[in-house]
Each structure stands twice: as structure tokens, then as C-alpha cells.
User: Fold Glycolate oxidase iron-sulfur subunit from Nonomuraea longispora.
Amino acid sequence: MDPELINDCVHCGFCLPTCPTYALWGEEMDSPRGRIHLMKQHVEGTPITPEMAGHFDACLGCMACVTACPSGVQYDRLIEQTRVVIEREHVREPEDRAVREIVFSLFPYPRRLRLLRPTMWLAGRMAPFLSRVHPGLGSMARLAPRVEHRQRMPRVVRARGERRAVVGMLTGCVQGEFFPQVNAATARVLALEGCDVVIPRGQGCCGALSVHAGRAEQARRLARRTVRTFEKAGVDTVVVNAAGCGSSMKEYAELLGREPRFKVADLSEYLAELGPVATRHPLPLTVAYHDACHLAHAQGIRDQPRELLRGIPGLELREIPESAVCCGSAGTYNILQPQAAHDLGDRKARAVGTTGAGLLVSANPGCTMQIASAMRRAGEEIRVAHTAEVLDASLRGVRL
Assistant:
């Protein structure tokens, strides 16, 4: 915990109305400035107590406070540093430790996730039993998506027409195994816009889940492998279609102590900069676009996905009330803090329901699973899609 970064906070309170946990509970220690106060106490000699750890664990890391702060407090860096300290110094209860070990021995490893796919149809039925074992396990089961079939990605997808660029594409862990259709759509969209898309073998987790949970060594190990993979591929830009992954990869220099030999760009960010050349076919859809926190707050990317969607003829874009408030997914938060995530998911589902949209579009797999689950609880089924899938349908002239 960096004392200089801690002292940047003047405790003005502008962060309070933006903080999801403060909105839920109205508890000062569950606000950004309250947590910074606890960080200061620890730096000045107070040991980490279970109560302090609980307040830090309750933070979603959504970074809405970073956007709102007039003093430029780098809360994103502070909470990541704090979580490393928590993991090093705090001894958790055995049940909590066990669930965390399951999560971080499973989700960052695509091959292990792949073994789960044939059992996904059982997940929902097992959720009540797993909830009795531990609420987080029940939450994990309820969120599990149905994966119809795996789509094996080629090593290179060639540009359609004149080649305008060569880019790498991250396939990811959760995205690659649970949402393979999103990766396929991403590659097609880039190719239709004139890009050769290099998809190296040997990819896995970028380390984002581990970074956000304070598991620094695991994060560095996964990040090094990702950097080696794309540097060996020789690409100058790596395009990412998952908000949390893109946010962490843009901070690789700080995590690894050196700049990678490539830049990282979110799909919508890259396409907006590249400019459209492919013809958009009409899609008669009413769409609600959800701002993933690690896209809007951490990367500052809000306008680009909306511009891309508005560029599709026949598509009507509707804004979601309280769009800056986290849906409760936040990486592994909806597993490790299931009740708070449940409440935030219900709040987001109500907001989405007011739009009357027939399709919810998001740029992060965790958000997609979280909001779809909350909508089902509310009895309001809604179709969900990634920005890439909507663009892909329009560019190819097919129904979504």
C-alpha cells in the first residue's frame, strides 16, 4: 500500500454515490474513502483484522470511484496493492480458502474449464445442493452458461479484400471456453474490416482474474506466458474482446516491470480507430448496451461501442438507467461475495427491464452471465450478445 497514493485522498465524499457497496449498505468502511482510511491504518501499524479484510473483500474493484474522483486518487492501484497484502497476511476461514482455491485452480486454465463443459446441463439442478455446501458454489453453478459446441479457432484468419492491418487476438480463458462464438465473431469482424487476425496457439488466461484477487505470483506467471506468446507471434497490436482482460493487459508494464513489444486495444476501441469499410446490413433490433466497469471506468471506453452499434441500420440503441453502477459480476466477485452480487444483479436487471429492449449487449463475459442470471430470477428473459456478435450479424447480413 503506497502511502503517497493513500494521502492523495482528501475524503471529499464524491466517491460515495458511485460506490455499489456503499449504495447497498450505507456503511462508511464499505466506501472507497473508508477503505482508504483502513489502508492508512495498516500502513501506520494496525495489523489486518478479519473485519478489515471483510471490507476490502467486499469491494468490487469496479473503479467507478476513479471516474468520479476530482483529486485523481488512484484507487485502482491501491485496492490491487491492498489485496496482495490481504492474501499474504490474512488467514481466511477454511471454507473461504477452499472456495478460492477451487476458483483459482480452475478458471485461469482453459483445459480444466473444458472438462466442465459436458456437465454444464447439470449445473442449475445442482445449485441448491451446492449452496448448502457453500453459497459461492451455488452461485457458480447458477451462472454457468450452456455451451452447445466448441469452435476451434484457426491460427490465422485472413482479411477480406484489401489488407489494412495485422493484429493478434486474445482468446482468453472464460471467453474461449464458455463463449467461443464471441471469439469467432470477433475474428470475422476484424477480417471483414480488412485485418489479418493472428490467433497463436498456447494462449490461456491473461492473469486478470488473479490480479484483481491479489494473487500476484499467479498473475505474473500467466501474464509472462501471454506476453511471450504474442511477442513470438510478432504482432504490433493485440485486440481483446473481454473488458477485464484488456484492462489488466494494458497494465502489464507495471505488473512485469517492462513494456511488452505490442500494444493492447479493446475491440471497439480498435475498430473505431481503424474506421469502417465493410457494408453494414440492417438489423431491426432494440438494444440496451451495458457498460462493463473495466471498459468504461478502467479503460475510459464508452463512446466507441455505442458509435459502432449506432452505425448499424435499423438498430435502436437505448440507455440503461444507472449505467455506471456495477452489475455485481466483477470477475470472481459473484462467486466470492454471492449475496452482494445477487443484490447488485437484481438492481441491474430492474434497470435493464425499464428499457424495453429485446437484446442486451455487453463487452464482458462475466457481465453477460451475471445479468442474464438476474433477469431469469426476475422472470424477464432477455437475449444477450457481445458487441462483436451484433457487428458480425450486420456485416454478414444474417439474423442475430
Summary: The two ends are 47 Å apart (CA to CA).
